[in-house]
Amino acid sequence: MLARLAELRHRPVFLLGAAAFLTALLVQSGELGSSDTQHRLQATHSFWTSEPAVLPGEYPEFGLIGHHGRIYGWYGMGQSLLMLPADIAGTYLEQLPIFDSYRGNDPGVRDIVVSVTTNILICVLAVLVCFRLLRLLDFTEGQAIAGALGLLFATTFLHYTQNMVENNFIMLLTLVGFCFQYQWLRSGCSRALLYGSLALGANLLTRLTTGLNLAAVGCFLLLVLLMEGASWSDIRSRVRDYLKFAAPCYAFFFAIDRVYQWYRFGSWFNTYLAVFGEQQKQLDPTLPANFPWSTPWRVGLLGPLITREKSIFLFDPLIVLALVLAVLLWKRLAPDARAWFIVTTLLVAADIVFYARYVVWSGDFAWGDRYVSTAVELVAMMAIPLLLRHRGQLRPLWWKVGLALIAVSVCIQLAALVFWYPLEIYQMNTLGPRFVIGLRFENIAAVVLGKVQAWGLSNSWTWDDPWQRLRSTTPWFLPFLLAKNPDVPRWLAHALEATWFALLAGLLLVLSRIRRLAR
User: Fold this and answer.
1) Residue ranges making up the domain that contains 412
2) Which of 364, 373, 498, 503 could bridge across to 360 with cysteines, CB 3.0–4.6 Å?
3) Which phi and psi angles does 25 have, rounded to 5°?
């Protein structure tokens, strides 16, 4: 057994999992990362306790009137189910006498347990599945490791590892769908097709618009067959086999979603957005007739592309490299790589179009446009593997440009972790529209140099509240936040900070080891 463990320590995939684990652990803040997730956790709590799905006093700011006049949250149940085991464990841990003096603090013990355990699990699994998918797409082990690390460190996946909205959960399930259904296409393994279909179907419980992801995976498989010149009889046979497994899985999860909709709002054929629109217009008759689909097309379509506050090209620059490489190398790309770029790029466009008219097309309080980030990450994760695979076929200039874009992407994602994610959004209430990423680097420099007030960056509501000021000027990592809490013993705070730096050193050692082995 010890010999087996020693052997595993030197396997790149084991080290890749270790890097993902350490990274996810280091970036945790202990907070759930969003009021959306807090509301979903309350729904989780209502599944197994007598607490309501929506806390008293939150309506009408949040919640909808449903069956028998009860107030329900308007989200799907997917993320709430994901958090259920951690919520049960965190609830009982929070009641232990050892936490008596800490009870009532923010973040609470339950929130810390839920966010840390859930985020780490999703991060590690997604990185490993990404690696497996890239290997199935015939990238070498070193290229696949680089691609998985690129997803982790050079896309908004890293930000959502710290801030637990539903994005990374959707990304994980989508990657599993792509990976196992593609494995079925290559091997004919029915079990792989079943696993992939179950993962994609489960996505429907989190966000119904992930039906676009289901369609994208199916189109990807079909495009691969067409580009490889499969006969029509073979394609028809594959489609029949595919539907035999996939259709019942998708129907099963869709039925669960519909039952949940009926249980809450007494309706089978609409979504919570229809109920939300009707009830909001009753509360505020001045809202437009087409609310919540009231954003002008021009704003919703161009916003994710060109605005300084939400552009996908600014928050995920790696997508630029991926698209440039796709154009430069199109004739040299394998059929599966071509199919990947066609499908994932269309998925980005479809997500943008779908949310273009939505009243909060941008995802509201989010780092970038969270509604399209999953599709963007799917495109971007191919950039580094392709750059490595085709380095010899590219001019030296493109290799240098690629390395520069990778470096910029990593810097942006690391900067996203440093402070509370909506800091710049609140600052823009008084500063006006700004280049958000530039403002984040300005905030980092201001805190390091002690120039926050001198540079006018404290001129927002966050500075009036001591807790909000703490969020805006303290590194957004759990040990540093706890160190500012007077209810946490000083010895424990210092021990947690020392542990954080030790884990950071461990991560750097693991990455160095991966680099040597990958070479």
Assistant:
1) 5-417
2) 364
3) -65, -40
Q: What span, in angstroms and rounded, lies between the C-alpha atoms of 479 and 500?
A: 7
Give the pair of three-digit tokens for residue 67.
């069956």
CB atoms within 10 A of CB 444: 15
Residues 255 and 385 in one domain: yes
Determine contact, residues 203/173, Cβ cutoff 8 Å. yes
pLDDT digits (tens, 9 = 90+) for 125-161: 999 999 999 999 999 999 999 999 999 999 999 999 9
Sign of CA dihedral 402, 407, 410, 415: negative
Whether residue 427 sits in one domain with residue 364: no
Question: How far is residue 109's CA from residue 511's CA, in Å, rounded to a whole number?
Answer: 31
Amino acid symbol at 198: L
Same domain, residue pair 364 and 463: no
176 and 275 both lie in a single domain: yes
Answer with the one of 353, 384, 417 that is the final residue of a domain: 417
Residue 468 lies in a domain: yes
Please state, in angstroms and rounded to a whole number, the distance separating the CA atoms of residues 7 and 4. 5
35 within some domain: yes
Runs of H (alpha helix) within 104-189: 109-136, 141-154, 157-162, 167-187
Structural domains of the chain, count = 2
The last residue of a domain, from among 473, 490, 506: 473
- The half-sphere exposure of 416 on its side-chain side, counting CA atoms within 13 A, is 24
- pLDDT tops 50 at residue 342: yes
**348 and 309 both lie in a single domain:** yes
Is 199 part of any domain? Answer: yes
Instruction: Identify the H or E element spanning 72.
Output: strand 71-72
Q: Give DSSP secondary structure letters for 246-302.
A: HHHHHHHHHHHHHHHHHHHHS-SSS-HHHHHHHHHHHH-TTS-TTTTS-S-HHHHHH
In terms of phi and psi (left: phi > 0; alpha: psi -120 to 50; beta: otherwise), the region of 164 is beta
Residues 165 and 203 in one domain: yes
Q: Which two tokens stand for residue 93?
A: 């841990």
Closest CA to 45 of 103, 92, 105, 101: 92
The DSSP element (H or E) to which 345 belongs, if any, is helix 335-355
Band (pLDDT 50/70/90 cuts) for residue 455 is confident
Burial tier of 400 (Cβ tally within 10 Å: 0-12, 13-18, 19+) = exposed
Tell me: the pLDDT tens digits for 69-78? 899 988 899 9
Phi, psi (degrees; rounded to nearest 5) at 72: -125, 155
CA distance 52 to 38: 13
Distance separating alpha carbons of residues 415 and 169, to the nearest angstrom: 22
Q: Cβ-count burial of 327 within 10 angstroms (0-12 exposed, 13-18 middle, 19+ buried)?
A: exposed
* pTM greater than the 0.90 cutoff: yes
